[in-house]
């Protein structure tokens, strides 16, 4: 049975024989760790297709009009969501008032 760790002599001989093969690097921010996840090829194709289709080909005026249209669309969505929230709040208040009214007579 041997020891679990090599002794100093074995390590020294290993370093002398294999010094040119050993790579040294700084520990810290300069250390490069390859942690990129492998992306599924089909997913990669979908992403590439979306990027190609999303690029609008047209004149400057057409691009400007499209941006303007998108801004109007976003504003409309914000306005509609605010109105929807207000309606929900009003309905909630009505329901609460109705519940209170039911329990008043007891």
UniProtKB/TrEMBL annotation:
Residues 90-106 have a biased composition (Basic residues). This is DUF2992 domain-containing protein. Residues 51-106 are annotated as: Disordered. It comes from the Bacteria. Residues 51-65 have a biased composition (Polar residues). Pfam families: DUF2992 (PF11208). InterPro entries: UCP021328. It comes from Fructilactobacillus florum DSM 22689 = JCM 16035.
